[in-house]
Amino acid sequence: MSALDVARKDFKGARRSRSLWTVATLLGAVTALIAFGYQGYQLSPRETVVRLFSTMGLLLAMLLPVVALVASYMAIAGERESGGVKFLLGLPNTRRDVFLGKLLSRLAVVAAGVTFMFATASAVAVARHGVLPAGVVVGMLAISLAYAAVFVAIAVALSSALAERSRAIAAAIGSYFLLVILYVVPGIGVSTVAQWVHTTMLGAEPNLDLYNAVTYTSPFIAYRKAVNLVLPAGMEQRVLQRAGENSELPAYLGDEVALAVFAVWLVVPLAIGYLRFEGADLE
């Protein structure tokens, strides 16, 4: 066998998961309802659909990590807890085959779910408004797939380092809290903490660009910034704070940097997770 064989076998098992089908169906229904009910005020049909997908981006920023984590947190931990990993390694497969195969299968499952959501929203938008800005929709789909892949990578990495279902669940919930919730809830966010440490503990002068840079380390913020890359001029979302109404963000806080943030979150967790799995005692 090979990594592709492992992926094929795992994909067949994952697609029969009731929880995944339930999540995908619910999210498909939610996106369809949003697409049907959204109506821009004094906007052309095309502008309305663009605003619709921009609004959907805010929802997907919160929900796509849930889809990816639910689909992937037991990818390897479940095999280790049940003892199935010994069977996989005895076929023969290397640990690299198992790791890559599980990663590929979960990426495929999540990609199918995300594509289904966009297809549903697109179909309703065309039926409701008669237009579909293909460039915006395809661009947002690509960015959403990259964002979801980040959380698949994180979940598979955590799953490969853990041998118990309970610990895998706790790690998945913890990663969602640390990488998404802390950037949403006002008053306890990462930017607030960074500002407190910088000004109160270190006694330095406030530096808004520094706090923005710390905030930008989150894939959640990176996704919201990346969406601006495909939106028409004048429809971009303001994600990071500015010192003044017309002040410009420095280049390292630009929308393009979001792609580099995605790359780091894809590579680093997978490298660490693979090394942990390679050295783990599976007895």
UniProtKB/TrEMBL annotation:
Pfam families noted in UniProt: ABC2_membrane_2
Residue stretches spanning the membrane: 20-41, 53-76, 103-126, 132-158, 170-197, 257-277
GO MF annotation, one: ABC-type transporter activity
Keyword terms of this UniProt record: Membrane, Transmembrane, Transmembrane helix
Cellular component per GO, a single term: plasma membrane
Identification of the protein by name: ABC transporter permease
